[in-house]
Amino acid sequence: MRNHAGGRLLEILLVEDNPADVRLTVEALKEDKVSNHLSVVRDGAEALAFLHRERKYADSPRPDLILLDLNVPKKNGHEVLAEIKTDPDLRRIPVVVLTHSDAEQDVARSYNLHANCHIKKPVDLEEFVMVVKAIDQFWFTIVELPEG
């Protein structure tokens, strides 16, 4: 089990408008052995407000990892990703695109915008849980993330 220095919870921001996918992600993370805190926003504009600590998100934690669906309202995932990766204060935060799209143009665009990886959401419940656990384990037990 790995935590950041000081033993604080690892922060994950989930950008997802599908309540079923939110519920599955929450359950998968609860079962995992990494101490984390999940914040959920339902659209791209809300994600950017959270990251920039605007309005009701003035006290939001800085995420250690962002799970980003491409098909969210207001600002789509690619627009959110582009803004994150061009902002000097945000660009080091790893962004995992976790979406139902495996269209070649979506995958290529995600990487062109500097996503850290693009994963197609499995349709099968057990596979979905397995993928979320694998993401959590990889980013918080194997990878060395920068502080702050």
Gist of the model:
By secondary structure, the protein is α/β, with parallel strands linked by helices.
Distinctive features:
5 strands, Rossmann fold, single chain, alpha/beta, 148 residues
Could you walk me through the main structural features you see in this protein, from its secondary elements to its overall organization?
The chain is of the alpha/beta class and 148 residues long. It has a single domain (9-136), classed as Response regulator (Rossmann fold, 3-Layer(aba) Sandwich), CATH 3.40.50. Helices cover 39% and strands 17% of the residues. The protein contains five helices and five strands. The chain has helices at residues 19-31, 44-51, 77-86, 104-112, 125-142; strands spanning 10-15, 36-41, 65-68, 95-99, 117-120. It has a five-stranded parallel sheet, sandwiched between helices. Strand 1, helix 1 (19-31) and strand 2 form a beta-alpha-beta unit. The longest helix has 18 residues, at 125-142. It is globular, with a radius of gyration of 14 Å. It starts with 9 loop residues before the first strand and ends in a 6-residue tail after the last helix.
Q: Unreliable segments (pLDDT under 50, ≥5 consecutive)?
A: 1-6
CATH class: Alpha Beta
Order of helices and strands: EHEHEHEHEH
The residue fraction in helices comes out at 25-40%
CATH architecture: 3-Layer(aba) Sandwich
Termini Cα gap: 20 Å
Number of helices: 5
Proportion of β residues?
A: 15-25%
Supply the helix-strand structural class: alpha/beta
- Rounded to the nearest angstrom, the radius of gyration is 14 Å
Here the CATH topology equals Rossmann fold
